[in-house]
TrEMBL record, chains A, B:
Lineage: Bacteria, Pseudomonadati, Pseudomonadota, Alphaproteobacteria, Rhodobacterales
Residue ranges occupied by any HTH hxlR-type domain in the UniProt entry: 11-108
Protein name: Transcriptional regulator
One Gene Ontology term of the molecular function aspect: DNA binding
Family matches, as Pfam families: HxlR (PF01638)
Highest taxon of the lineage: Bacteria
Cited InterPro entries: HTH_HxlR, WH-like_DNA-bd_sf, WH_DNA-bd_sf
Keywords carried by this UniProt record: DNA-binding, Transcription, Transcription regulation
Length: 158, 158
DNA sequence: AATGCTAACTTCAGATTTTGAAGCGTGTCA
DNA sequence: TGACACGCTTCAAAATCTGAAGTTAGCATT
């Protein structure tokens, strides 16, 4: 199948994975949320090679997750900023952080809710009733197309 | 630096990325949350090559995200189940789903909160005051070690 | 006017990883 | 005896990644 084909499935999760499901992309996003904007800073803080960084930043700009902007005309200098679309990936990074701190321990990133001042670990909740949510509290139903696609794959294998 | 070194940083996010920040691992997790348990089903539904699937499943078992269990002794047959640790990655997959449905459109996975019956899109909220949270509502503070590590990297580049 | 410096990349060869197809081992069922 | 299912393993070719070095554009210093 190949990784690129993930974009063409009926699954909303795989279509996202094709775009951001890459270790370096996730590292770049982490950095962006920590406030990093410049090529060399991304490079130093993530440890990615400049070649790959260049590719990934291009991709992310094409996907409108980051935006490349000149912050200086002479000499030409650019920075990479999160777009609204990119900023909306925050829950993904936070979910990773939460899991890391729960299950891997070690150093921490402390989060403070600016509005109420509390130190928090953000939680997935039901927007309707406000209850915290886990895998077992929610039922997932696939769209007919996605269901059909899965059935076809199952049958096509033999 | 290389991807394996992500495990040895002071950043809780990169340590997680080293373990689950891979497209195929994320696809395997998606499948696991959809109820898939068997090797061949993972293979067919994710499109990963059997070689890689085998590697990734091994990794995931070592990391105790999945558990390999015999469901039949003769002939020997195995299945892969989410552990508690693995099930706790649910918010990551849901965060990806949410973003996909908001920004990429297309087919959907409908989620229903079993307890209250509502169709929902789970939301990251403040456990203290119950407010929905976005990137700008929260301040992140790094542990002293992590800060120091970043400073060292910055200085070491020249 | 030559040298050095910074930032943002690009290039390239060697190493590593991934893909895709094929095959294997164990055991059941007809 | 033969066909089939499942859970993998093997291997070579293709693709990707790493790390070091180089490039470009312009400012600043000697």
């Amino acid at each position: 199948m190949g990784r690129a084909d993930l974009a063409n499935t009926s699954c909303p999760v795989s279509r996202v994975i094709e775009r951001v499901g890459d270790p370096w992309v996730l590292m770049i996003l982490r950095e962006a949320f920590l406030g990093t904007r410049r090529f060399d800073d991304f490079q130093v803080q993530t440890g990615v090679s400049p070649h790959l960084l260049s590719q990934r930043l291009k991709q992310l700009c094409e996907d409108e997750i980051l935006q490349r902007r000149a912050y200086n005309a002479h000499p030409p200098r650019y920075e990479y900023l999160l777009t609204d679309k990119g900023r909306d990936l925050w829950p993904v990074i936070i979910a990773l952080r939460n899991w890391g701190q729960t299950w891997l321990g070690g150093e921490t990133i402390t989060l403070t809710h600016k509005a109420c001042g509390a130190r928090i670990d953000p939680v997935m909740t039901c927007p309707d009733c406000g209850t915290p949510l886990g895998a077992r509290d929610v039922q997932a139903d696939l769209s007919p197309e996605f269901k059909q696609e899965r059935k076809t794959r199952r049958e096509g294998k033999g």
